[in-house]
Amino acid sequence: MNEAIKFSKQKFISKKTVLASMLSMLLTPVAVAAESEQTEEIETISVSGIAQSYRNAINEKRAAPTIVDSLSTADIGALPDLSVAETLERITGVTGDRFKGNASEISIRGLGPFLGMSTVNGRAISSGSGNRSVAFSQFPSELVNGVTVYKAQTADLLEGGVSGLIDLATIKPLDYGKDRLQAEIKLNYNPYQAKFNDDNGIGQRNSISYTKNFEGTSLGNFGFAIGYAGARTSSPEESYNTSSTLRNCNSDYLKDGGSNCSFKDSNAAANGGAAVDGDYYFIPNLFYYRQMESEEKRDAAIVALQWQPNDSLDINVDGQWSDRNYYEDRHDLYFDDGRRRIHDWQTNDQHALTQYSGESRISSYGDYRVRDEQYKGAGINVEWQATDNLKVIADAAYSGTHRWQTMHFVRFRSDRHFFQWQVMGSEAFPDIARVYTDKDDPEGSQVDWLSEIQDLSFFDANYEARTERYDIKDSINSHRLDGIYTFDEGFFTSVKFGLAGSSHKHKNYAAHRVTHKNALNTDTPILEQVKASCQTDWAQKDYGDDANSPVTSWATFDTHCAHALFDTSTQPDPQAPDAADINLTEDIRSIYALANFATELGDKYLTGNVGLRHVKTDVSSLGISNGYNVVTDPVTGFVSFESNDNLEYTPYTNSYSNVLPSLNLSLELADDLILRGAAFVGISRPDMWYMGAGRDIGSASSEEEFTTVEQALENKVKAKGNPYIEAIESNNYDINLSWYHESDTMLSAALYYKTFNAKFGNKAEEETITVDGQQYNTLVQGIPEVQSEESSIKGVELTVMHKFDFGFGLSTTYNYADSDFETPESGSNVTQDVRDNTVPANLAGLSKHNFTNQFYWENDDISVRLSYKYRSEYLKPFGNNLAQTNRIVDDTKSVDLSASYKINKNFKLKFQALNLTNEPYVEQRVVSEAYNRIEYSGTRYFVGVQYRM
Predict the structure, then answer these.
(1) What is the dihedral of CA 428, 429, 434, 439, to 10 degrees?
(2) Which of 335, 464, 730, 768 has the fewest beta carbons closer than 10 A?
(3) Could you report the per-residue pLDDT of 772-799, keeping only the tens digit for each?
(4) Cβ-based neighbours of 239, under 8 Å, separated by 6 or more
């Protein structure tokens, strides 16, 4: 609660004694986040049980000056979930992308992650990817004691979230007010990991934290908190996948001939008409079955120092550190020629293949990937009560992420075989009914392929090895200065004003790949060397059981061992300059003013705030383009380009401003009934990977008979980003009615409506390009842009929280979101006429329905919670590639169980089970039943003991 509401509320209580008992609880100030004074006064009750964590959420929602939802505890590490992302999913309207069994990218109210904003203690968080999504795993739930989702904007909040703002809170020792030592040891059992040979499936999560306060010393009050959390966990995977490329075809090899499938009016399926009017099918370039072991090692720490030298000064210093190492050991069985000699095909009514025959090489792939990611964050916040009426707050912070990845890859291929493929539904891998050598005699030429693929000699046709690396560095330096002046009387109770600035530096070095084709030892065939030194037994038991996989094992090898047999003297350098590199600086300066007010409408109490925020953004992006010498043939006069090492560097700059007004109102219709409304203009900034400035210039040869450089450049310059792309603005309207029947009971309903321009597309635009030291004006293709087509989203949120007298309780949330936004099919390998006939997808990340239901029972010693989460299908883009097909994640659901038993005042036993029903993760492409991914990762179990004193 901010100072204005606190002050005016106190005055109003003297007139409304009937409200005194209720309001006395709501006026206890507890500082939670330095970003907004509103959150600093929100009440947090010191609790440990499930019911009382929901009571905190009810109290915080009731006391907030805008529309928020939150979950918090006073104790560090007392959030009941294994990750912050899972905690967020329990908040109404918040959904996570559940990938590899874990919640990750977060959407608010149906708007994708790119339209949201996340902070820690009110400060922007760096990202280890090309987008602005936050890896919440770098903030272990054991070290966080609160999350708040702002669904409406106030002028003093950091801009950047059209959908909302997520703020993570870490502890402030003096505000916590107690000394505490806490430690937890938790064992993890993963049945899918236990399938691996000589592996018991056991992992661990450990944490320890200590909070200590020194009050009444000669230097004032001082407190500190320090915490550590470590994890050694696994995320194995069994999956069916297809290539990222998908195309439409209508050919049948037996009727139309040819090799790779085609889409022609002359093919038999067109029946003499246009191909688009006949039957056709969508098909990937390849498909494969994956067996994967993956393990993660994560260490994280936080530190918090709080010093109050006197009653007027409050100094807080906090820091966060996280180090994550993650590897994937992939073994894949590929059918590499997914669209070769397709025949005998059948489709559903949306042109998704249900069965077909084709011809392909079969390959055994080894792919070993290691990713390291380090996060460092630190900040200092100083509050000075300058006078009885004036408070000044200064804040400075740093947030930095460094992510790097190395991939080693080796492949061995067989000769081509015919095969018969058949879809088996969304919960089973597609079947390979038969592999054979003669298309005219499938049964007579059938190969016992399931036995053949157990021997590496089957894959003796060709081979390849690769090494690939990439590197991303992202950092944000920020500062802000705020002042709050409280009036003793009048309509306006206080004003808040301030300025903020940040410098965001993003260096995203494009992945650099080197192919190794030569063996170190040329005397013995490379496959024989691998068989002798590197072949491994099949790594696990019961592969594909849950998915009814047609294949349960194949010949594999140690990828590192096989890779070492190749000449790898040439290694990739991810920091070598490349046109796809992003070297970006985004400087933001903002200034705001906010006025809080309080009055009466008849016998109703009305509070609110009105504010204005002005934001100026300066972008500088360094572009790289290929270096060429221009060569003119002395005989023909034709122009060609000759590559050189002299890359062209071009700086691009852009500056723009946004004016963001906001209005928030809160009307007490009754003692326990509050109506809130909000109207504001918000912005979201485009992801960094859209803001690169590289220009990829294609080669030109004399055979193409260009007579000028301008001709040689025509249709040859491709954009790798657009530094002139600007923030997306939205108009937002919210209304919320909440009934607070008792301290443990709340019914809340909200309506929201937003309008925005968030459709990304490509355009062609003339630019000045430098070739061989000379500048030329030419058309640049594929420049990302935010198109001016306005879209809207409307939705309903419902929340029910109630605790029964006999220990049972429930928390139910539902969000319905509907949008007229359209993401048309834009796959570059799908013909335009078929794209035009394909139903467009919706907004990235939008699920029309999102539902959570949590039942719990607890007494003084025992606590049990059963959770069900459901999210309807949603669009998941392929990164920044605007020429990829639409990828739809199927409906997802999860059943989780947690329980605890309090042994005594110091010790507690804990148990958790995630994904009890082993629900698969399923993706489809373009149309229904065109499966792109079917993945099983199993149920996970956790059991541990917690110590507190």
Answers:
(1) 120
(2) 768
(3) 989 999 999 988 888 878 889 999 999 9
(4) 289, 290, 292, 933, 934, 935, 936
